Write a sequence for this structure.
């Protein structure tokens, strides 16, 4: 039902995009593509994942091996992980489906291998199917109660859903059975969004020396968590440094780039955000930040890129995946299309399954911008219950509360 | 920490921060399938299949020099391979009857997530002007369950769309409100074509038809003719019938017997009550031709040729049914379609029989007809039927005979 309700605004995005294109005088694309014959054989049409990239070479080789031993379950899981990692790091969602295809035969077994269930849970989580991911994780942990990865993933999923109690419980399991770095990271992530950002930062700083010998991805994880905690506390210099530390370890990581860009936008450093996101093969996430930066700077290319972004949303909608990207769509509607009513509708759809600080923020901003602060009551209740410290969320929540409780209260 | 969680932490850089809920980027894989009906050619649909180069490159070796930069030259060189792969993943049906796809061109399309190879094709349907169009989509299913086929069908003023994937692999569009009369007509045309283009049914009819202007010399009727005209030559084993009316009557009986039985088995088969392996049916048809022609050379059944026609018609009906395999319509439309098709088969036969009969009647006294046409002709038919029988029953291909193989 909710999905159907959401369809309309996004269709209107597409229409606005058409108008934007028409008025800006740019060649029409997207809905109205025309097949053509390239001028010469030498024209490069597409850049494929390059074999120069070690990650590509790795899954390419695994794929070859699997072709000769298709029934080896260990190899299948390894290949699926390689696809999944690559897809997540680059933002190329095609690799999620490819990973899914590789584990599907294993999942059909009775009982499915634990490793395959873990890949499946991570895939579902990557596709924002949190409830489904949780079901898989619960089945996994029932069979293997000491599975570190299972608990870690469960805590992450629960956190996204705003289920702090489950996140906490999952971290507690880690505390009992794995090394301090993993447990500390788990707890810090939860503390950052439950009013204990200062404690989180202290814990992370304390385990930092221990992370020295760890792989780059793990160190980047810890630095990313530090950046988030520092940002939440309003320590912008510390946050900035932590983001840079994380990005130095995993350059170009899709999530890190998007998060750092959001931070820069919040700091009125749109020009730096643009430099960070513009150019190269772009994921939708990165591109949205680029469009937001261009819009904030009032650059001439903003309207053309906004139209392209709208076309991407229209593509998502066409394949029936629009619900999964409701938060991005809400931000786009609010800050680029300047349509707070649509933004609010989208934010409400988003809130039904995602409750991270960013979801709270776009919901509150959209409610305030459309003069319907009372619509944000569920968010205000959530912020109060979880003691969320995020400064932007706090500020918006304060304004919304003031609008709901009118001056009459103060006059007394 | 075990190696597993080391892997996972790579993933979790994104997760624990709550970054995971962010949009995952480049959308997942889509392909676009568009179909247009053509008012000038009612049994043809013009199709366009857009396949992402990145998807094609994942399954086919189109990056010939493996440098990661896909050029138009490389895509062009792989055209045949891409067309085979792409068209194998879609099945188009008109009223449940398969449409054959033939590639007609290649181009490039730019979508929001990159360059796509365009496969232009025509879908030629057995069924003229189908009422209902069905698209079954299985492309990329084995390598990416999140892949979707975005299907758009344009039929005159009507347009419909569907998003196809593993859970909903089929899309259906009613091209027009079923109009019984035009449906009947279109199936009648199909029936006529089925006879005209199917040499095996024609040869069977012909085998029964050849002796229709003659009596066997030693049959009671033949003896009577010989008694009335003692000078008549009887060494060919045949004597001419005295009047055209006689031949007509015989012919009507033969054709009617054939029609009644093949209509019955056609209906039973299309409705799914009878289902024999096609190898059995097809070799049975070849055998029926062989026997019918042999009977003209070495008489076994000398009377009641219509009984033979009726008996063998049963198996020919099952053969006709293969042309309608998969036909799925509501009951009333089904009755109209089957009726139309049977009538078409009948008309197709008549259109051959009626011009033939007067000609045969005029020539019936000649040795050329009695020996050249009936005897030698039947022997030739036997030879062809024997060939078909061997091919169909034993699944053999006899070299140099493909032009004789019915479509």
């Amino acid at each position: 039902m909710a999905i159907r309700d959401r369809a309309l605004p996004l269709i209107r995005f597409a229409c606005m995009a058409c108008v934007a294109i028409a008025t800006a005088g740019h060649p029409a694309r997207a809905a109205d593509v025309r097949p053509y014959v390239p001028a010469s054989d030498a024209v490069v049409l597409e850049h494929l994942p390059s074999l120069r990239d070690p990650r590509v070479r790795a899954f390419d080789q695994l794929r070859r091996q699997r072709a000769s031993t298709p029934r080896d379950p260990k190899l299948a899981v390894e290949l699926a992980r390689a696809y999944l990692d690559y897809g997540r790091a680059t933002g190329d969602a095609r690799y999620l489906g490819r990973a899914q295809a590789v584990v599907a035969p294993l999942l059909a077994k009775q009982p499915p291998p634990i490793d395959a269930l873990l890949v499946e849970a991570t895939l579902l989580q990557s596709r924002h199917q949190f409830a489904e991911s949780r079901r898989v994780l619960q089945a996994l942990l029932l069979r293997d109660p000491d599975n570190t990865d299972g608990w870690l993933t469960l805590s992450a999923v629960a956190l996204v859903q705003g289920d702090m109690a489950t996140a906490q419980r999952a971290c507690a399991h880690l505390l009992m059975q794995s090394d301090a770095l993993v447990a500390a990271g788990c707890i810090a992530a939860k503390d950052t969004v439950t009013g204990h950002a200062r404690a989180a930062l202290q814990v992370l700083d304390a385990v930092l020396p221990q992370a020295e010998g760890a792989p780059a991805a793990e160190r980047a994880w810890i630095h990313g968590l530090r950046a988030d905690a520092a940002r939440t506390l309003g320590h912008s210099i510390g946050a900035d440094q932590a983001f840079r530390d994380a990005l130095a370890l995993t350059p170009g990581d899709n999530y890190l780039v998007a998060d750092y860009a959001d931070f820069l936008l919040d700091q009125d450093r749109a020009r730096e955000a643009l430099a960070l996101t513009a150019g190269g093969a772009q994921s939708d996430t990165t591109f949205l930040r680029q469009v937001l930066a261009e819009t904030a700077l009032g650059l001439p290319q903003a309207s053309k890129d906004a139209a392209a972004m709208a076309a991407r949303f229209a593509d998502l909608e066409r394949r029936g995946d629009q619900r999964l990207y409701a938060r991005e769509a809400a931000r786009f509607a609010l800050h680029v299309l300047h349509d707070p009513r649509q933004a609010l509708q989208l934010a409400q759809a988003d809130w039904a399954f995602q409750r991270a600080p960013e979801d709270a923020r776009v919901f509150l901003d959209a409610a305030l911008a459309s003069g319907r602060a009372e619509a944000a009551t569920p968010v205000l209740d959530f912020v109060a219950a979880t003691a969320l410290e995020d400064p932007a969320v706090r500020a918006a929540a304060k304004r919304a509360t003031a609008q709901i409780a009118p001056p009459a209260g103060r006059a007394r | 920490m075990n190696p597993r969680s080391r892997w996972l932490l790579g993933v979790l850089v994104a997760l624990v921060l709550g970054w995971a809920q962010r949009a995952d980027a480049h959308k997942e894989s889509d392909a676009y399938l568009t179909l247009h009906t053509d008012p000038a050619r009612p049994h043809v649909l013009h199709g366009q299949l857009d396949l992402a180069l990145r998807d094609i490159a994942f399954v086919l070796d189109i990056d010939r020099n493996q440098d990661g930069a896909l050029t138009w030259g490389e895509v062009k060189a792989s055209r045949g391979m891409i067309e085979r792969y792409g068209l194998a993943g879609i099945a188009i049906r008109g009223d449940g009857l398969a449409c054959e796809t033939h590639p007609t061109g290649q181009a490039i399309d730019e979508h929001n997530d990159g360059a796509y190879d365009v496969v232009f094709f025509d879908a030629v349907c057995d069924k003229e002007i189908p009422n209902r169009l069905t698209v079954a989509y299985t492309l990329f299913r084995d390598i990416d369950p999140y892949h979707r086929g975005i299907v758009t069908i344009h039929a005159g003023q009507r347009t419909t769309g569907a998003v196809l994937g593993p859970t909903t692999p089929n899309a259906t569009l009613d091209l027009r409100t079923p109009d019984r009369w035009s449906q009947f007509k279109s199936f009648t045309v199909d029936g006529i074509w089925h006879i005209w283009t199917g040499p095996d049914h024609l040869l069977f009819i012909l085998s029964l038809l050849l002796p229709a202007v003659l009596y066997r010399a030693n049959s009671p009727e033949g003896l009577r003719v010989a008694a009335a005209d003692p000078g008549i030559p009887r060494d060919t084993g045949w004597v001419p019938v005295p009047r055209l009316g006689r031949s007509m009557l015989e012919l009507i009986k033969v054709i009617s017997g054939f029609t009644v039985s093949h209509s019955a088995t056609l209906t039973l088969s299309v409705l799914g009550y009878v289902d024999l392996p096609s190898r059995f049916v097809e070799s049975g048809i070849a055998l029926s031709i062989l026997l019918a022609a042999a009977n003209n050379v070495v008489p076994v059944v000398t009377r009641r040729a219509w009984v033979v026609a009726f008996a063998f018609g049963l198996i020919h009906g099952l053969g006709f049914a293969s042309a309608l395999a998969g036909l799925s319509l509501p009951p009333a439309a089904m009755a109209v379609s089957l009726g139309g098709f049977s009538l078409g088969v009948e008309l197709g036969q008549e259109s051959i029989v009626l011009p033939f009969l007067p000609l045969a009647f005029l020539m019936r006294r000649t040795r050329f007809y009695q020996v050249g046409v009936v005897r030698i002709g039947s022997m030739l038919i036997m030879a062809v039927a024997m060939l078909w029988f061997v091919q169909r029953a034993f699944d053999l291909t006899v070299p140099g005979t493909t032009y004789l193989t019915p479509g």
